[in-house]
Design goal:
The protein is an alpha+beta fold and about 130 residues long. The chain contains 4 helices and 7 strands. The strands form 2 sheets. A 5-stranded antiparallel beta sheet has the order 6-5-4-3-7, covered by helices on one side. Strands 1-2 form a two-stranded antiparallel ribbon. Helix 3 (about 40-65) crosses helix 4.
């Protein structure tokens, strides 16, 4: 897959040429690169981040539907467990740090729960790779 770098005011990011053409009105990559402004680069960066976020949430949703229930946050200071809600809603996500319970979330669908878990910065954790939840 061929990629191209796009500049923004304070970032440079890389996208596939196919993604670039699908998200601009340019007839070719070369035309876009010769004429785009940093404002357009900013907009594309925002759009690309949105697409990447949706893609990552889709992967997380699929993992949850496959039965994954243990999670770690990005800093590995918290762990979470997805389970049936004790509060009579459909699903509950409870998360902990080394001192105990931090909080919990509820959602009525796995899709909505995946978004909430993602927004907290949690990712699937394999069994045996968790330290807080025993």
């Amino acid at each position: 897959m061929e990629t191209v770098e796009i500049n923004t005011y304070d970032n440079v990011f890389e996208v596939s040429k196919q993604w670039l053409l699908a998200n601009t009105e340019a007839d070719s990559v070369e035309e876009f690169l010769d004429t785009y402004t940093w404002d357009e680069g900013e907009w594309l960066y925002f759009l690309y981040q949105k697409d990447e976020r949706e893609f990552e949430i889709g992967i997380l949703t699929d993992q949850i539907k496959q039965g994954y229930r243990l999670f770690k946050n990005n800093g590995h200071t918290q762990e979470g467990l997805l389970h049936d809600s004790s509060k009579k809603t459909c699903y509950q996500f409870s998360y902990f740090d080394s001192h105990g319970a931090v909080g919990d979330l509820e959602a009525d669908t796995l899709e909505k729960m995946a978004v909430k878990i993602y927004n907290l910065g949690f990712q699937v954790c394999s069994v045996g790779h968790h330290k807080i939840l025993k």
